Amino acid sequence: MPAFVLDDATPPDPRRRWDSLDAAARGACYDNNAGVPDSAAQVAARNAASATYRAAHPDGLDIPYAAGARTGFDLYPATETGAPCLVFVHGGYWQRNARADFACFAEGLNAAGWSVAMPGYTLAPEASLTGIVAEIGAALDWLAVHGPARGIGGPTILAGWSAGAHLAALHLGHPAVSAVLAISGVYDLAPIRETYLNEKLGLTEVEIETLSPLRLAVTPKPMTIAYGSRELPALVHDARNLHALRSAAHAPGALLPVPGADHFSILDGFRRPDGILVRAAQDLLGGAR
Description:
InterPro entries: AB_hydrolase_fold, BD-FAE-like_dom, GDXG_lipolytic_enzyme. The protein has ten helices and eight strands. The protein is an alpha/beta fold. It has one domain: Rossmann fold. It has an eight-stranded mixed β-sheet with strand order 1-2-4-3-5-6-7-8, sandwiched between helices. The longest helix is centred in the first third of the chain and has 18 residues, at 39-56.
């Protein structure tokens, strides 16, 4: 595993004593639902707000980019086709959730004059992680070709949350992507293989080595790496470690701790045009030009 960055201001990384942890303790390192006491209420509120936002913007929903049942886009275009676009990849440890559950997080950027595009993807175990990564690449390819006809033709910032942050980080090098905003992500897959999460993922050694951003060469485009100050320690350290790796390679991009935010509430930074994540996307656009 990569060396972990120590910082006295953060909680200790439990993976530094990984060999001493039993299966339950290892799983707890990544169990965001259990780690946030009101996670169920937050998810219910998010889903309700997303259903409302989706219903109010029906014209660009469920547009396929590939043949799978989940391989479609929900598009929320700005008034101007040339406006910037944020592509948002949802999380759920690659095995749950759907793009429709996150529609409300288009609200702040739409109000700020941006387009938002939300791709879905096939979930594990129906798809391997290798297959999921390929689907996100196919979604970006589709948007680059067909987006202008759907009102989306400006520069693209790719964002993702949780597992979506991992998927976004892997596509920083895509030619259609100007920069990445990675939020509350997991960037080394090796510990995941030794938790309950791997029952559906079935990670291979090749996937761990080739699909872990912390194990890959640095792409020198801008990437902002955000996390909540109340995240689980493993996620805090992954964020800081990825930023340290990129900084050592002189790659541009900020480390953005969001004070008081947990794994779920951090996305509220997309709900208003002056939200912290909206501003982070706007800052990345300025840095990418």
